[in-house]
Amino acid sequence: MSGHEQFAEDLALLALGSLGGDERLALEKHLRECAACRRELESLRGDMALLSFSTGGPKPPARSRERLMAAIAREPRGSAAPAKRWWMLAPSLAVAALMLVIVLLMKQNSALRQQVARMDYDAAAQHVELRRAREVVSTLTASDAMRVTLVAAKTPPQPQGKAIYVRDRSNLIFIASNMPAAPPEKAYELWLIPASGAPIPAGVFKPDAHGSATVVNPPLPGGVEAKAFAITIEPEAGSATPTMPIVMVGAGE
């Protein structure tokens, strides 16, 4: 046995803080004279720190435990003293293993919380979409809804627009068909013409390639009595007041 090998187990016990008495004094004297054993002691202490406190997963603690066990295995087991030291080492290894299990359980618990949070978010988004769909159906089927059909002024009634308005809820659904394309950098703007007061902007739209367009529940003031609806051509961002001429208009049925 070389001078280094006889201290292998003592180095491991010293790294754990479990070496005392004459054996500790002898090892500390040897460490003052042996740079190789000092490096081995620092390495073992680093392994124990990883084994006890690492949160990066099971791989670093596993390698640290193997290194520590290899250092202890280099000491012959022929005497009674090493067996006694194994009993001193076992509680520390059990604590380290328990800490590793706790870390893994904490990581698993965190992943489960994130999964539950994602499920809650998805459920909330579905609830919002369902509520919007119910509002659309409610507006389309409301018995007190005002239904207005808009036609092109002074031309055959090919382009059409239908407005469905529920005054009490300020809900408005507008459906256009056969609409010609808007001029460049322009758009159509829908207007609610109240029984009294100035026209109220009710949404900007551009027809698709088939001339179809919709406006669904634009922001409107509450409880406004509508006398008619109209459409003008405005800048793409919309206007605060209608720009003449009015291209489509319709009153309540």
Properties at a glance:
22% strand; 47% helix; Immunoglobulin-like; 253 residues; single chain; alpha+beta
Give a short synopsis of this structure.
This protein is α+β, with helices and mostly antiparallel strands.
Word description of this protein:
There is one protein chain. With 253 residues, this protein is of the alpha+beta class. It folds into two domains: 5-105, no CATH class; 146-251, Immunoglobulin-like. The chain is 47% helix and 22% strand. The chain is built from five helices and eight strands, in the order H-H-H-H-H-E-E-E-E-E-E-E-E. The chain has helices spanning 8-16, 21-33, 35-53, 59-73, 80-141, and strands spanning 146-152, 160-166, 171-177, 186-194, 200-205, 213-216, 226-235, 246-251. It has an eight-stranded antiparallel β-sheet, covered by helices on one side. Helix 1 (8-16) packs across helix 4. The chain is rod-shaped and about 110 Å long. 21% of the residues are buried. Mean pLDDT is 80; it is low at 55-60 and 77-84.
